Amino acid sequence: MSQKSSSPESSLMTLSVEQERDSYKEKVEHMKLMIQKYKQEIQAQKIRREGVETVSRLLHESREENAAYQKKNIALETVVRNLQSRLSMNGISDGMTLGEGDVFIPGSSKQVLDNLARENKRLRSLLQGASTDPEEINELQQLIENKNIEIKDLRHTIVGLSEKLQSTGKLMKSSDDEKLSEIKKLQDKISSMKNECETRDILCSSLAEETNTLKQQLHDVAVHCQKLAVKLELSEKSKVHGGISSSQTDVEKLQEENASLKDKLSELVKMNKRWQEYMSQKERYWQQIEQNHVQPDRIQAINAALEDASRRLQKLEREKKQCQEELDERNQQLIEKSSELMRLQNDVECGNLGHDDGHLRSDVETISALKAQIQICTEDFESERKDREKAQNRVAELEAEVSQYKRMRPDDGRLPHQSLFEPRNPSSPESYGGFNLQGQYNRESQLAARGPMRRREENVYDMFNVVDAIQTDSAHTSKQDKTNKEGTNLATKLKVEKPDTDPDNLLDTVPDLNDFNSVDSDTELALEIAMRKVEDINLTHCPRCDHSFELGHDQETREHLEKCCD
């Protein structure tokens, strides 16, 4: 049973192995077919690549031919222009056409006859002054030929320089990246050529030293050969006279020397071959340099030109940026001016439609009056600032005196000079550092820059005579306090800090003395209102809505006046 069971299993195994082998064979054949197919595709791609290369080569050649034809066309156009100018000089029109067998006979125009007479005269003078010596004529002809050759060479050089100029012009017109890449290529080429020159110079110097050593060796060998020849002659003579015994040792020595000389000769032959190769390489190198026209001076000139071009490029870039920025600013100003012009045109149209001429004149007068008021306010501010500085200096002096008297005060709390700190009368003009209160204000103490007093309907009292105004007109005081509060709120919104020499702060910083407690409430209120008026000097008011502006904001003030007056 076991044999029967093993036989089908073995048959199944053999069948599976054969099937697997067949499948592998099929896969191998399939792979061979795929490889053959890929080989065919590769061959087709190679053929296609060769065709593309030929097409590109033909395209390059056609471009070169096109460039050559363009050059020829330009040359022919110049020739045509020259011929047309010559025709115009000879009095012939440009539209005239001649056949193959036609002969042109110039007309008897005055210009043509004058030209012919002038040319005839010139030729006769040349014939009269010409020499009849054939040698001199030959020399002149040779000189003419030399000049023609020089002219041809100069034309070739001019053509080459014009081509270089065109290439440099194209390079300058190209983008910055192309310029930088071209400069980098030239620098790399110059550096490689420098390295080649340095290596060849080193090779030349080494080979020159080697040739010198070889020449010295050849000289030594020649001297040694001469010595050996002399010895050989002497040995031959000794053979004849002396015998054969001593000649064998000499022969051995001569053989050894001969072998060493043969070795040296072979070395010299090798060195001679190397020297010949070096000379041929040097000759090829110099021929290549002459062909490329590359010399050290030219390399330095190219380097200098490249550096100059890079500097000019950087300078042009900076100028371009500056011009761009200036252009942007000019454009912005142009936009602003155009918008302002449109706004003014609209205002003019609106004024022409809805207002009469009298109203416009009144607006112009109002604006001029406001401008004069702004100028007066600025002048007043400058003068009052000077006065404030004087007052601050006076307060500082008083503080110094107070601190001095405080240091001089004894321990019992009394001052040595009690009269200096007695209660002051608020009505006295000496109470507050020169400020005249309660009717004591005179014209002499008035600020010089303010000129004559200008009173408005809502401001009828002086700047420092605030106590009298408070006692006489309480309603006006309440209105003024309101305006001062608005100005103070505006100052706090704009974060305008008071100076450290504010009178209120100075009164707080004065030492606690009983003599200053006698200042009454009216005087304190007057000082507070005076300080508000001082702060109000920094503001400009609208004549219609009584809106306040700071002196530095002229543009905002003008816009508000234009809107409010409309």
Key terms:
566 residues, mainly alpha, two-stranded antiparallel ribbon, 2 strands, 1% strand, CC2-LZ_dom, CEP55, coiled coil
In short:
With 566 residues, the protein is an all-alpha fold.
Describe this entry's structure for a reader.
There is one protein chain. The protein is mostly helical and 566 residues long. Among the domains are: 176-294; 379-565, no CATH class. Helix content is 77%, strand content 1%. The chain contains twelve helices and two strands; from the N terminus they run αααααααααααββα. It has a two-stranded antiparallel sheet with strand order 1-2. A hairpin with a 6-residue loop joins strand 1 (539-541) and strand 2. Helix 4 packs antiparallel against helix 6 (296-354) and helix 9 (474-493) packs across helix 11. The relative contact order is 0.03. The model is unreliable at 410-521 (pLDDT under 50).
Topology:
Blueprint: H1 2-89, H2 110-129, H3 134-173, H4 176-242, H5 245-292, H6 296-354, H7 357-408, H8 466-472, H9 474-493, H10 503-509, H11 521-536, E1 539-541, E2 548-550, H12 554-565
Antiparallel strand pairs: 1-2
Helix pairs in contact: 4-5, 4-6, 9-11
